[in-house]
Amino acid sequence: MSAAPAAPAQVSHGTRASRIGLPLFLLLLVALAAAPWWTDRQGMRLLGEVYAYAALASLWNLLAGYSGLVTVGQQAFVGLGAYVLFSAALLFGVNPLWGIPAAGLLGALAAVPVAALTFRLRGAYFAIGTWVVAEVFRLLAAQFTALGGGSGTSLPASVVASIASGRAAREQLLYWLALGLAVLILAAILLLLRSRHGLALAAIRDNEVAARSCGIEVDRTRLAVFVVASGGAAMVGALIFLQKLRISPDAAFSVNDWTALVIFIAVIGGIGRVEGPLIGTALFFLLRETLSQLGSLYLMVLGAVAIAVMLLAPRGLWGVLADRLGWQVFPLARRLEPRAPPLGTAPPPTTRHALAGADHENRGDTR
Amino acid sequence: MNPSADAAPILALRGLRKRFGAVVVADGIDLAVRAGEALGVLGPNGAGKTTLFGMVTGTVRPDAGTVMFEGRDVTALSPARRCRQGMARSFQVPQPFAGLTVFENLVAAASFGAGEGERATYDRCAAILERCGLMARANERAGGLRLLDRKRLELARALATRPKLLLLDEVAGGLTESECAVLVDLVREVRAGGVTVVWIEHVLHALAAVADRVVVLHGGRLIAEGRADEVVRVPAVAEVYMGIPVDA
């Protein structure tokens, strides 16, 4: 560093909005954690579903919105996770709760060959490629006769009883697991985006060639985020079907349930912002709970909402709020604050050191 | 500071060849750039200048030939690795990370290109922004910048990677006289800090103000070499570059 008396650069991550938004969000989490005391079984089930969708949409947003990997095959890992849990419980007698981390691990492992196949494709071809892989997974699951083949199977009562003693205790435990998993996934995404790797992801999304020319290993970074997101989706899938207690290839690998609706949520909430999928999930469930008795008209309303958002607010609902009102919940920005010049002095001299060349003694590619 | 003639080359190209279909863009290019030198590259549009930068930085794979950087063969290395070893480039058509802010563009380049922890890059990135005239734009999205600021960002982001070799691709194009003068000062300052500069430019006076030596590229070959004022008088250069027939 030079001896120039320039004050160190001040970089803030939060804004006034996030200083209000984050505590409110944490309060909401506390209230949700206490849900078993203020809602009934029906309510807990609904909230469990909300958490699963919030987690899936956040993971999809990490891939599509932050890394440029627009996948239509997330159901491959949701279904795989569910099948890992059922296999572990039914074939190996493993406690189903252990099936959740096992699903995460195997989902992450399976993502490596899937990436090897699909990363050769770009854009729309990548999207279709991931969908094809998910269909292959579904067809393979239908061949799995030990778990009922095409018609699927249920968890026997003995396995269900091993989760917790009594139905109320089990439902509470599953509720907290669903909330905990969603929070874990959200926290992991936030940590990733706060790190320099978050910048690398956005750089890759925006301009792959420039990212490579700035020292960013594009393929390795993409693979890492795909592996992590796939592991996350598999854990969510395992938990969803542990709540349902029944599995079949069509339900576990449903493109409608685990990808189309998830994309809908991310699009209406806002792609490329962490808050987007969360607000999108809330909006989706609001629509579903108020309109689902309308039958197929409900689906038409969903479609109309999606089209309206894409035309009128392409950055999603949260995008509009963030752009117009500066709303922000999570402190993810890197704002360079203006330096206050010392009183009564001229502005600091040009900081030449910044432009000086590499330190030829200490530099070397050790990476 | 003029490098001595026998200084070791920081960059050496040997027999680089590249063709796209029937178009030959590099036809056996041999070129050595000494450490600390400022080399200008001239040539008409389509002469293969940008492809040459692509082959040096690794975004374009040559059909034949080698690229040596600091005495090591880097022909098979990825662009990212070459950057981390000390090569940086600007793009002729600016390629900002549009969704990131200007400051974040630099932090990304500094933390990956120079391999520094993110926080450790803040001071340096702020200083580069100040010097490149981008401080007022630091927190704006790079996608919303106008052309001049995009050009500045290209240079600033390349500097953030702590290059030993800086490849500039027409950074002065489209700038006014006074903006160009500021840019020339900046490139001189970068060079005075020990960075080797290779600069593709059509704005001849800008190039002449910085470059010790100029090479002229045409049809994938180097057709002339010398000081800026010398090469433009070479008849072959006048013909291909200015459109003046040699025997006129």
TrEMBL record, chain A:
The superkingdom of the source organism is: Bacteria
GO cellular component, as recorded: plasma membrane
Biased composition regions of type Pro residues, renumbered to the chain: 340-350
Q: Where is the composition biased (Basic and acidic residues)?
A: 358-367
The subcellular location is:
Cell membrane
Give the residue range of the signal peptide: none
Keyword tags: Cell membrane, Membrane, Transmembrane, Transmembrane helix
Q: Does the keyword DNA-binding apply?
A: no
- GO-annotated molecular function: branched-chain amino acid transmembrane transporter activity
Q: Where is this region: Disordered?
A: 340-367
| PANTHER family, sorted | ABC TRANSPORTER ATP-BINDING PROTEIN, HIGH-AFFINITY BRANCHED-CHAIN AMINO ACID TRANSPORT SYSTEM PERMEASE
Protein name per UniProt: Branched-chain amino acid ABC transporter permease
Q: Which organism is it from?
A: Muricoccus nepalensis
The organism's lineage is: Bacteria, Pseudomonadati, Pseudomonadota, Alphaproteobacteria, Acetobacterales
UniProtKB/TrEMBL annotation, chain B:
GO molecular function list: ATP binding; ATP hydrolysis activity; L-isoleucine transmembrane transporter activity; L-phenylalanine transmembrane transporter activity; L-valine transmembrane transporter activity
Q: Which domain of life is it from?
A: Bacteria
What are the GO BP annotations of this UniProt entry? D-alanine transmembrane transport; L-alanine transport; L-isoleucine import across plasma membrane; L-valine import across plasma membrane
Instruction: Please give the Pfam families that the UniProt record associates with this protein.
Output: ABC_tran
PROSITE patterns from the UniProt entry = ABC_TRANSPORTER_2
Q: Which GO terms describe its cellular component?
A: plasma membrane
> Which CDD domains does the record match to this protein?
ABC_Mj1267_LivG_branched (cd03219)
> What are the ABC transporter domain coordinates in residue numbering?
11-244
Read off the InterPro entries from this record.
AAA+_ATPase (IPR003593), ABC_AA/LPS_Transport (IPR051120), ABC_transporter-like_ATP-bd (IPR003439), P-loop_NTPase (IPR027417)
- Keyword set, alphabetical order: ATP-binding, Nucleotide-binding, Transport
Q: What is this protein called?
A: ABC transporter ATP-binding protein
Naturally occurring in which organism (per UniProt)? Muricoccus nepalensis
